[in-house]
Amino acid sequence: MPRSPEQHEAMRAATRERVRSAAVRLFARQGFAAVNMRQISAEAGISTGSIYRHFSTKEELFEGLVAEAATGMGAVVELFRGSQDPVDSLRTFTDEFLSDLAGPGDFVEFFQLMHQAFTQGDCSEGDAPSVVGDLVSRNTELLRAAVELMERGQERGALREGPADELASCYFALLDGLVTMRSAMGERCVLPSTSTVMGLLLKEGNDG
What is the CA radius of gyration of the chain? Predict the structure, then answer.
């Protein structure tokens, strides 16, 4: 019995997701330059010929991952610059981040891959696509939005005092460190609750 167009599209989407996940794992472990399409297809469990029906090059694959990360950062920027209370915005993002970190997906590898891309900056090392520059710009925008959010929270007396840029840096460093711990320890890593992380940001005596 022939497959319906819906079934065919569902299978195609499932295969693309397998390829995406395989690429994330390999890029994160070995670096973009060291990985080729044959390795990705083997990791995904499909033939080398099949992978080219979905992605023509590893650069196209990587660009899609970077675009995915940039879109995610853009959503966080909108959240931080929205009309919601600063503490509520921080709590929402923190909760989502910790949930993704504790989940069964490839969040850790994806985060590490984007961190590698970010630190690579203008692609002066290796041969990563130039879209990395777009990721750097979006990350700069995210940091600026976070500092502005911290300042608004301080003005309302909700967040602890001190330079807002330092507070934002410490916040993101904490999240980055948790990813590293999760990668190294797996499920043995004890992740903090959202309330614990928020407790480090809130002004003493303010429960948010």
Answer: 20
From the list 132, 124, 119, the residue with the least C-alpha distance to 69 is: 132
pLDDT in tens, 22-58: 999 999 999 888 999 999 999 999 998 889 988 999 9
Report helix, strand or coil for 7: helix
Which one, of 12, 67, 58, lies nearest residue 39 by Cα? 58
CA atoms within 13 A on the CB side of 26: 22
With 0-12 / 13-18 / 19 or more C-beta atoms within 10 angstroms meaning exposed / middle / buried, residue 197 is buried
CA-based max dimension of the chain: 68
| Triad 139, 143, 148: Cα angle to 5° | 145
Question: Letter for the amino acid at 163?
Answer: P
